[in-house]
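The data are quoted verbatim for reference:
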Amino acid sequence: MTTTTSSATSPTKSRATKSTASAQSGETARGFTGDGSQNQLNPLFARAGEATDFPLDELPATESLPETAYQIVHDEAMLDGNSRLNLATFVGTWMDPYAAKLYSETADKNMVDKDEYPQTAAIETRCWKMIASLWNAPDAEQAIGTSTIGSSEACMLGGLALKRRWQQDRKAAGKPTDRPNLILSSAVQVCWEKFCNYWDVEPRYVPISEEHKVLDGSSLDQYVDENTIGVVAIMGVTYTGMYEPVAEIAAALDRIQAATGLDVPIHVDGASGGMIAPFLQPELVWDFRLERVASISTSAHKYGLVYPGLGWVVWRTTADLPADLVFDVTYLGGHMPSFALNFSRPGAQVLLQYYLFLRLGWDGYYKVQKTSQDVAVYLAGEIASTPCFTLWNDGTDIPVFAWQLTAKYTDKWNLYHLSERLRLKGWLIPAYPMPDDLADMVVQRIVVRNGLSRNLAESLMHDIRDAVDYLDALTSPMPTEGLVSTFTH
């Protein structure tokens, strides 16, 4: 579609051509553009561009006023809805005004240009050392870490280190390296499926069940062999929010090593729990206190409380990150080590993380995470008290919980219908099937993040009860055609 000029601008253009020199000077001060057009004076939504339309899929032929372009993009983004009411995502949707100010001041920093922005590079190192200490590394000075674009990249790096260490050990023993495998829960996040696909690693999924709701070390000996590069333990399963018992998994691997001699390391995917457990469950042993844990990753833009996208990965020692994965790069006149998958990436989020570490400290992080957990436990209790729902978990690990429709409660509606009904009030609470072996079970899940207050939670429960009352009052079943989950973990 081509841009046309609104007829509303014609009279003002005509007046502009008749202006005297002195009048033109005054008109420019009032907002005339250099070519004599009066777009800046027109009411905002009557301007050319606002009053008509821009092409959707091709570059416009001409310029537009920054105010016009801004308003169009702003209005389109507005159609996404209110991110604060998105209870599907783990990703943070709120930071304080000082963080927003810092973000705007540092948006131009490229994290890879460490010679150009040496202080940002130094702050990055401070951050991962703080995190290494938070995760009880034996010696933070001997650990090694990096920032990443979210925890997916961090997981990729952790997985690559596992594979490379296994390859080196196999080559040293004169054994083949062409059939690596990785042990995973069937409820693992999709980034691990991508890792196995992209880097030719066989995924061996341990199915969850109602008896074993998470990967807990049971039957691991049926999956581990000499080609196993490692086991992934999840601190906060995305389907339900539950912790996998890393200490029990490590104990099972200890028994396997005693019986077979196979020494299998663990990568802890702490995308969410990595920034929850140190504050809310400090006595829980899941981190570098377990010698079998070689590396840990987390999403800083989840419960690290930073805007997207930022992640961290830390290895117990420099020996746990194979040296041949680290590149020495000369870039823009500087010399730097690089072991991230991405090259140019934002530096602002790293500074935001450091800001939060200084702003909140241990005590502040505890208060924020405890408040989120309290809201999650409140909501889980309210859901549990509703006869139509049966809880899967209660939100006492990370502030996340899931529930299913009580068996034989109704034949008129299901959780997909409830999810659609809640969307009418702006709430995004997904319904989706559980993974293989439980695929017939549909659940709903709520993620409580910083910004979901107790007051908002009470409003949510009011809307859930209203939706249930509406659905229960139906005289015939809701249609089920086309009810599919578009939710991806």
About this structure: The chain has three domains: 7-78, 101-356, 370-472. The first strand starts at residue 144 and ends at 148. The mean pLDDT is 88. The two ends are 37 Å apart (CA to CA).
